[in-house]
Amino acid sequence: MMNWWVSNSRREAVASRGFFAAHKWWMLRRATQILVMTTFMLGPMAGIWIVKGNFASSELLGVLDLADPYMQLQGLVAGWPLAAPALIGAGIITLFYLIIGGRAYCSWVCPVNAVTDTAHWLREKLGLTRDRKLDKRTRYLLLVGTLLAAFITGTLAWELVNPVSIMQRGLIFGVGLGWGIVLLVFLLDLLVSRRAWCSHLCPVGAFYGLIGRFSFVRISARNREDCNSCGACLTTCPEPHVIVPALKGDGSTLVLSGDCINCGGCIDSCPNKVFSMATRLRP
Amino acid sequence: MAKRRKMSRRDAMAEVARAAGVVCLGGFSLAALVKTTSSADARAIRPPGAMPEQDFLKACVRCGLCVEACPYGTLSLARWGDEAELGTPFFTPRSIPCYMCRDVPCARACPTGALDRDIPSIRDANMGVAVLVGHETCLNYKGINCGICVRVCPIRGKAISLEPQEINGRQVQIPVVHSSECTGCGTCEKQCVLGHAAIRVLPRDLGLGGPGRNRAGRPT
């Protein structure tokens, strides 16, 4: 019995490996996103202070400082010297994503990911096919654009409209009408262009993608000889171009592009267990 | 490793121009948006120890650590349409003033130096300055001995005091703010008995005059 809400790209995997095996990484991801978000929200809402602040900068258990390196970079370009503890916090976060995969931020932490994933799922269920093609490199241009704006205005200009920080701050502190911009992202992904925000436009993701080029944990098409070219992984993947060299190439089985968000969607959706989580040391 | 795309010089230059166009369009429109909204910031009252507004907007990462450090719930991060730039901390003295904690926990919590973590004492804070704006409504001007602003001031007798004056032949006691002592905590504004406070905290550059000579009308 196939549930109607299972996305098409996972149906074969559900049939061959069962529902839970075909949603393992998806469930782990959503659980992590919810856990991170709730930990931040527990303070202001229930007075349980495990972590203070928000993604921009925070203090874990009153001792460990964490900070968003992209935010620090914007401040630097705007003309404010980097200083501890935010600088140390940004260093820790950079190191963390150098290990677990740069854009693991996108798929395991960022709340906007849940919004755009939902939009993508709803597109499929409603049969919406309108897809205004965007260039995937647009996000790098926008990244440079945000830094240019910071330089011209001498403020963190991007933070005035950044849906990523607006949404997480909204959940923790409230932003009022700021939710409108999150709704815009949802509608953009649903009605205008497939995976428009996260895979084409978001400069935050582009920034973490730059870290991701060098990161340690990677997806591997370890059993690529078992591939029967069903295309399930490519339909699930928000960045399908990253899979091809690893799956169909002759070189490394590792997905080496910084665009890969380490979401594990390909592992979940493959009916033949081609993919697995791996590291650079053990591809 | 990567396949090189064959591209004519003309295409390459067109592509570079297009990329530069997107960067500039994005960057400049964002900058324009910031410029149109920044005029509102002039009214925002910042937490104690805040750098001058221009530097504050470079340094503040909108993390809310100061907001969560405040034991009185004074501070909040600006929402869409508030008087401060989106996401930055500010407070509205008429709702909840700054209670001037001795250890200044909000400033100590700031990770970037947007608030001065090393502020020696809350007395050194410069959140703004109280200004008696309602000369026609203030009860003391009408000859009633209200003086609530003077009595609630945490910097007792120093930041604001009653000075005898004669108005229309009548002896009255007028509240006078001493800007060198006033931190802009806003307790006076909070407690003013009028429906619309006659004394208000304003950012210092709005609330105070300055020395020097107006150059208006003279050749420079």
TrEMBL record, chain A:
One of its GO terms (molecular function) is metal ion binding. Keywords: 4Fe-4S, Electron transport, Iron, Iron-sulfur, Membrane, Metal-binding, Repeat, Transmembrane, Transmembrane helix, Transport. InterPro entries: 4Fe4S_Fe-S-bd (IPR017896), 4Fe4S_Fe_S_CS (IPR017900), Electron_Trans/Redox (IPR051684), NapH_MauN (IPR011886). Residues 217-248, 251-280 form the 4Fe-4S ferredoxin-type domain. The keyword Phosphoprotein does not apply. The keyword Metal-binding applies. One of its GO terms (cellular component) is plasma membrane. The chain crosses the membrane at residues 34-51, 78-100, 140-158, 170-192. It comes from the Bacteria. Gene3D superfamilies: 3.30.70.20. This is Ferredoxin-type protein NapH.
Automatic annotation (TrEMBL), chain B:
Keywords: 4Fe-4S, Electron transport, Iron, Iron-sulfur, Metal-binding, Repeat, Transport. It comes from the Bacteria. InterPro entries: 4Fe4S_Fe-S-bd (IPR017896), 4Fe4S_Fe_S_CS (IPR017900), MauM_NapG (IPR004494), PSI_iron-sulfur_center (IPR050157). GO terms for molecular function: 4 iron, 4 sulfur cluster binding; metal ion binding. The keyword Nucleus does not apply. PANTHER family: PHOTOSYSTEM I IRON-SULFUR CENTER-RELATED (PTHR24960), POLYFERREDOXIN PROTEIN VHUB (PTHR24960:SF85). This is Ferredoxin-type protein NapG. It comes from Paracoccus sulfuroxidans. The lineage of its organism: Bacteria, Pseudomonadati, Pseudomonadota, Alphaproteobacteria, Rhodobacterales.
